[in-house]
Design brief:
By secondary structure, the chain is mostly helical. The protein folds into 3 domains: 1-220, no CATH class; 223-292, no CATH class; 299-367. Helices cover 66% and strands 5% of the residues. It is built from 8 helices and 5 strands. The chain has helices at residues 3-36, 43-51, 57-100, 105-159, 164-178, 193-220, 294-326, 331-355, and strands at residues 181-184, 190-192, 224-227, 244-246, 278-280. A 3-stranded antiparallel sheet has the order 4-3-5. A two-stranded antiparallel sheet has the order 1-2. It is elongated, with a radius of gyration of 25 Å. The chain starts with a helix and ends in a 12-residue tail after the last helix.
Length: 367
């Protein structure tokens, strides 16, 4: 495991452990609430008493501690990413200048290095500010999540469909599978811890890499670039693989880079889930990448998406089981939940056997 993988794993584990702690806390509150419920009492009175638990000072201190740790982790992560990107970009610059301006290569490489360092410092500030903003919402969202759970329990009980014990187990199980809300997007959609960690890591890596690359290419006045080629490229990006583009759009021979969607969250290279990269291109050296079969790339992409779906199902089933265990659910409920985990794991095993793809054990543990 290299230095970057270690830092990425540390960031993921930090949030995974944090969510486990908060889910356990909610389970404790719900278990206490069941013990506190008096047969025949008004469910709304019971709900209001349970809401007071969010004033607990201990869990608010846990959030403060987590926020501090998250800033330390994001700083460490950005340091490692910038170090990796700087090495890659200086190597690209060296190769490019070897062909285009060998006489002034040393001085220009120094200028590139200084530009990267300056951009890295600004990126560090931006990423820390983003992390601070994200952390601010966690406390309010946890209160809202707990209130939503209690509302759902009360609704089930009032309808007469379930008793309070059954309703609590059912609602908590579904909530654990969905995950805690870390952020709410502008469109109102909720982002769970797993979704946040995944998107945050991709965004950090993507932002740092793209901005440092843009800074470097501007410094070297590089206009023509070549895109890489992937065997499992996103289907919409397949037409843009292993081709030469003009960053400025001024070339009469090559199409503008913007025609690939570059610069957007769904476009080539800058897309949040895109693994494509670009390299400097010069007519002397020629292209270095060859396109994969469009049919083969599309099939590989579909298989990769199916595998991720199966992996998500396993993680969700495990979260559900853990919540029921925390609530001391009846043995028959626990047995059904364990069976669900086993079925999910079996589906993934069958898929791996059938397709020959590699299993990723780190993807089937709750994040």
């Amino acid at each position: 495991m290299n230095e970057l993988d270690i830092r990425l794993l540390a960031y993921e584990r930090m949030y995974s452990d944090y969510e486990d702690e908060l889910l356990s806390l909610i389970a404790d509150w719900l278990r206490e609430g069941l013990n506190d419920y008096e047969v025949g009492e008004n469910i709304e009175d019971w709900k209001q008493r349970q809401l007071l638990k969010t004033n607990n000072a201990n869990y608010k201190q846990e959030i403060i501690t987590h926020n501090r740790l998250s800033l330390i982790e994001v700083v460490a992560l950005v340091i490692v990413i910038t170090k990796k990107e700087k090495e890659l970009l200086l190597k690209q610059a060296d190769e490019y200048l070897e062909v285009t301006d060998n006489e002034n290569k040393a001085s220009r490489l120094k200028d590139v290095s200084n530009a990267i360092e300056q951009a890295s410092r600004q990126l560090m500030i931006e990423q820390v500010q983003y992390q601070q903003q994200a952390n601010k919402t966690i406390l309010d969202n946890l209160d809202a999540d707990y209130k939503e759970i209690l509302n759902e329990i009360a609704k089930e009980v009032v309808s007469g469909k379930k008793g309070i014990f059954e309703a609590t187990h059912e609602v908590a199980k579904k909530f654990a599978e969905k995950g805690l809300t870390v952020l709410k997007r502008r469109d109102g959609a909720k982002l769970s811890v797993e979704g946040y960690v995944s998107s945050s890591l991709r965004a950090i890596q993507k932002t740092v890499a793209i901005q440092l690359q843009e800074q470097t290419y501007d410094e070297l006045e590089i206009d023509l670039v070549e895109t890489t080629s992937l065997a499992d490229s996103r289907i919409t990006h397949i037409p843009f693989q292993a081709k030469v583009y003009s960053r400025s759009g001024a070339s009469l021979k090559y199409p503008p880079l913007a025609s690939t969607g570059y610069g957007t969250i769904t476009g080539m290279i800058t897309g949040i889930n895109c693994r494509h990269q670009m390299y400097p291109f010069d007519e002397v050296t020629g292209q270095r990448f060859k396109p994969f079969s469009e049919k083969g790339a599309a099939q590989n992409y579909r298989l990769s998406q199916k595998q991720r779906e199966l992996e998500r199902n396993i993680r969700r089933a495990k979260k559900e089981l853990k919540m029921l265990e925390e609530l001391d659910a009846p043995l028959d409920e626990l047995a059904r939940s364990r069976a669900k985990v086993e079925r999910s794991e079996k589906r993934l095993d069958n898929f791996i056997d059938r397709t020959g793809r590699r299993i990723r054990l780190e993807r089937i543990e709750p994040q």
